[in-house]
Amino acid sequence: MKNIAFVLALVLFSSMAIGQKVNYSGEWKLNESKSQLGYDFSLAPASISITHTKKALDLKTVNVWDGTEVVSESHITLDGSETENKGFGESIAKSTAEVDKATNAIKIVTKGSAEGVGDWTSTQNMLLKEGNLVIQFEAVSDMGEIAETYVFDKQ
Fold first, then answer.
1. Between the CA of residue 93 and those of 22, 28, 41, 83, what are the distances in Å?
2. Is the dihedral of CA 46, 34, 93, 155 positive or negative?
3. % helix, strand, coil for the chain, step of 5
4. Pick from 6, 23, 63, 112: most CB atoms within 10 A?
5. H/E segment holding residue 5
6. How many Cβ atoms sit within 10 Å of the Cβ of residue 57?
7. Read out DSSP for 22-59?
8. In whole angstroms, what is the distance from residue 136 CA to residue 49 CA?
9. What domains can you pick out in the chain, each with its CATH number?
10. 104 alpha-carbon distance from chain centroid
11. What's the pLDDT tens digit per position in 6-54?
């Protein structure tokens, strides 16, 4: 009888853990030693601030280019509908995002066009792993391709 009660408790606990929602909100700082960055250059943000609600992500990223901080902000809905945000320079970037309900990962696909870069597409797969925010990033443009994995520590 104790074994049955133990098994039922374990199943109940497991189903509760699976049903929990993940929240990506927070201030995150890039951990370069845990990340896999590009050899020649990296597009990794130094930090990212995320506000995650049930229906959307608000992202504020800080990149450092030649010693200068470049801040960008975007609002992305999580229902698969397209959102527009400021891209490179004066361009507009169009993003779609969806949540994988099985893994709670968020996939963001963004497309744009910019002078000097041409047409580009980026894909970010975000997930929380062992207390870190992990973003698997891929981008393709007329200038080439890049694939990196960013690992962020919560601040």
1. 26, 23, 22, 8
2. negative
3. 10, 55, 30
4. 112
5. helix 2-19
6. 22
7. P---EEEEE-TTTSB--SS-----SEEEEEE-SSEEEE
8. 17
9. 23-154 (2.40.128.20)
10. 12
11. 333 333 333 333 444 789 999 999 999 999 998 778 889 999 999 999 9
